[in-house]
Amino acid sequence: MTFIITNDDGINAPGIKALWEALNTANLPLSSFNESIIVAPQEQFSGCGHQVTTKGPINLQCLSDAKYAIAGTPADCTRIALTHISKNVKWVLSGINSGGNMGVDVYISGTVAAVREAAFHRIPGIALSQYRQGQKNVNWPRVTHLARIVLTDLLNRPIESGAFWNVNFPYLEPEAPDPKIVFCEPSTQPLPVAYQKKGEDFYYVGKYEERNHTPGTDIDVCFAGNIAITKIQLS
Q1: Per-residue pLDDT tens listing for the chain (235 residues)
Q2: CA 42 – CA 61 distance, rounded (Å)
Q3: What CATH number should be reported for the domain holding residue 205?
Q4: Coil vs helix vs strand at 232
Q5: Which residues span the domain enclosing 31?
């Protein structure tokens, strides 16, 4: 069984290194885990949504037997991984994104698009993201620890064909205990839409942390300090 690991922050981002470590130290049956392969964008593609490359070349650099850098989007990475790198892919994991991907973020996020593309091919996936509170730094060793716990849970759960998991880790103060895992529904409320106009140009000034906190949704759960997990089923 092969696990493909990708992201939208780029192949050298700390989050993909954290995901690699979390997966390779998760408590999984040995019979279900053979290898993990990184197939990630050469550059950052944050916020690219489900963009795919169809009008030009997609360069692939083989960095090792288990690491490939692709000059394309996260969805491109999934497509090439499934068609040309491994014929035995059973899961696609994406992240760990530096920034939240909750609610309607899933339509904008390249992180989520990578696993949605896998779901189109009836391969399950998990998108993992770390909510950032303002400009505070991410404690990647702590996130790796939490990702290991989550992967041990989700990879041992059955999941329907055409579905994938979306995971958002909360911001935690250093002394805070490990958060609870909460399975919840995704928010359907829009992102804050606000712009500042300078001459003929508009600059987005919406504040992510001021999003609607509908009780029980992934935004409410994550902003309250818990791990929000939603299951998204293709219609």
Answers
A1: 799 999 999 999 999 999 999 999 998 875 555 789 999 999 999 999 999 999 999 999 999 999 999 999 999 999 999 999 998 999 999 999 999 999 999 999 999 999 999 999 999 999 999 999 888 899 999 999 999 999 999 999 999 999 999 999 999 999 999 999 999 999 999 999 999 999 999 999 999 999 999 999 999 999 999 999 999 999 8
A2: 9
A3: 3.40.1210.10
A4: strand
A5: 2-233
Q: 192 is written with which tokens? A: 């804050």
The residue behind tokens 């041990």 is: 152
Count of domains forming the chain:
1
Helix axes 14-24, 140-154, angle to 10 degrees: 40
Token output for 217: 């949704």
- In which residue are the tokens 């050298």 written? 12
In Å, what is the CA distance from 51 to each residue of 8, 106, 192, 213, 227? Answer: 11, 13, 23, 29, 28
Q: Which of 126, 98, 124 is nearest to 112 (CA)?
A: 126
pTM (two decimals): 0.96
* Euclidean distance between CA atoms 142 and 174, whole angstroms: 9
Q: Phi/psi at 31 (nearest 5 deg)?
A: -70, -20
Q: On the CB side of 143, how many CA atoms lie within 13 Å of its CA? A: 27
Distance of CA 168 to the CA centre of its chain: 8
**Helices of type H across the chain:** 14-24, 74-80, 110-120, 140-154, 218-223
- For tokens 């992180």, the residue is 111
- Do 232 and 164 meet the contact criterion of CB atoms below 8 Å apart? yes
